[in-house]
Design a protein that fits this description.
The structure holds two protein chains of two kinds. Chain A is an alpha+beta fold. Chain A has helices at 3-17, 20-29, 33-42, 60-72, 79-92, 190-222, 234-262, 267-292, 303-315, 320-334, 339-345; strands at residues 102-104, 110-114, 117-126, 133-138, 141-146, 156-158, 168-177, 180-183, 224-225, 228-229. Chain B is of the alpha+beta class. Chain B has helices at 5-8, 16-32, 50-58, 77-89, 98-102, 109-112, 227-239, 249-258, 260-263, 266-294, 300-325, 339-354, 361-370, and strands spanning 118-121, 137-141, 144-151, 162-168, 178-184, 190-194, 206-216, 220-221. Classes of the chains: A alpha+beta, B alpha+beta.
Amino acid sequence: MSDSELFDVAVKLFAEHSRWQDVGDADATGWPDNLWKALQQTGFSDVPVPEELGGAGGSVADAVQLLRAAGAHAAPVPLAEAGLVGGWLLASAGLALPEGVRTVLSPAATLRLDGDRLFGTAPAVAWGHRAEHVIGLVDGVVVLAPGPATQSGGPAVSRGVNLADEPRDTVVFDGVPVTARADAPDGVTEETLWERTALGRAALMAGAISAVAAMTLRYSGEREQFGRPIGRFQAVQAHLVTIHQQATVVASAVDGAVEAVELGRGGFEIACAKMLADRAARLVTAAAHQTHGAIGMTKEYPLHYLTRRLWAWRDEAGGHRRWADRLGSALVASGPDALYPAIQSGSEVVQ
Amino acid sequence: MVSLPSMVTSPPSLTAPELELRKQVRAFLAETLPWGTFEPGLGMGAEVNPKFSAALAERGWIGMAVPARYGGHDATAVDRFVVVEELLRWGAPVGHHWVAEEQKQWLLPRICRGELCFCIGMSEPDAGSDLASVRTRGVRDGDGWRVSGVKVWTSNAMRADFMIALCRTGDGERHAGLSRFLIDMHSPGVTVKPIPFLNGSTDHFAEVVLDGVLVSDEMVIGEIGQGWAQNADELAFERSGPDRWISTFLLVQEFIRERPDLAASPDGSRLIGELAAQYWVLRRLSLAVARAIDAGGTPAAEAALIKEMGTRFEQDVVSALRELLDRELVCGLEPAPSLFERLLRRAALDAPSFTIRGGTTEVLRSVAAKGLS
């Protein structure tokens, strides 16, 4: 299946199981059971983990297409955590996928391993309370541990939510025995975990932004004031142009990041993609709400399912500053004559 | 969904022959124009140097995409992108042949040899953004045409051999009655009056009065009545190239060279990171349009989206660096100001023109908005 065919199939799945009403219901209950089952049945939750490790196969590009579709439908599930980030982390160390809902502990967590026992606190764990398994990188060791939703003996959890009411829970380990552990291979570090997490957020954001673009364009053609559709006014057209420009920027940036990752690198491109996605989120949500006016501020109209996620995702996986600082420091250290070659060739020549 | 498919398709990275071409251009520049031996310019507003243009032409890097039968080189839009990108990021003096290159569909062998300098007569006192309201008129006269009118904001008119002039030749519908002529600037009836630019230069901008200038039938570009369509097609080429986002790049490069302390500060390196991300993605989009042109498309709306973003970004670079420096732009007469200081002064004064020349931001938004569906 080509990437665009996969995207189309995924869009169909989300259109059926992640309707705005489903997303709203999940805001309240914390979990869309039908959607998650559909993702498991299709194997989408297990892309890009190799089949021999219990995954569904597929490439990073495939996983990113699925996340774009998920972002466009505000799918309230830990899809990035299950596949692109957590699945990758387990597979990199040769560990097999466990049965059940899984999520990832952020590289910002302060954890330590004492033998096979895990100690410490992981903040803002996506759907932490629903997770039967958690995956983390602790002192260079890939760890699979029981999650708060395991039958007994799991870690303690206190519930939290981000701006979009997606669960972001604090999980506390007080010596929970790990299920499996293996040394992380070369090239899998705290920094690459940050990068994977950021790529996942950028892909979701690309999807959400394209959906905001479509929704806003449609609304501007339907809503009439002063006797004509508001999209005919130049001032409103300027908003539409901003939104589509930024949708294009983020789409191209995510493509560029995927191309680099598939070549076994990608630090430069992922930093750029996350920075550009964060900036786009700011510009696009402002222009979209301004175009919609009061209706866009209501709970009833679905724009907020997308814009609240964009506001939350901007700051997750490292915000604008983290990535700008890291990239900028590397570029300044390389000196003036290396700057343009870096812009042309990215992680092929820098980092 | 985003309705600009050619842009969301990623530009496949450069091919081996394209990378080899880039290597050749870099080697040529390092040899002909070693860094530090010339005054680098800000993008297309760079110096005029006929000898340099001739040297480029000798290597086949002018009129690249022109068919070989007209003296061109049958190169692709991406090859052209590769060459232009390297020239501009080096601040090379492309002024002599720049316009000729933009108008490559109509180039003749002499243009491809870099021998001729062109200007474009589009704007008039009462026809700026509303270009279709031009009043310069071509009237049938025997076997040729008599052209009368006034063109303004014509870059390089004082040194051009020919003008590509957009004129009204019919009374029909607004767009249908427009044609383009190639006017010999040495013809009787042509008067060029320099318009001093706010940065003090008097050899760039001009008003051109055409008073009954006789133009033969061979100098009609394409067909009578096709002027508007030709213009629109060319804008896809003109609006998406590196020249629309790279103009102020050398400021960033020289800032790092001359102020390594400030560049390495938290604010400095954050800014460099932000700017690099923008350059990286604008370059990708610009390259994607070149690929789309090579595939036979005329991505005019996409090009408008890029120019609108790219030229505003060129200005943002200048203001961001000025904010970081936070000091008056006073250069001592002795010792001579550094390259960074010279570039910054020039950019501070030229920057407002970036979002005006080649189509204002406002017009570009209208063009782009029409392309959304």
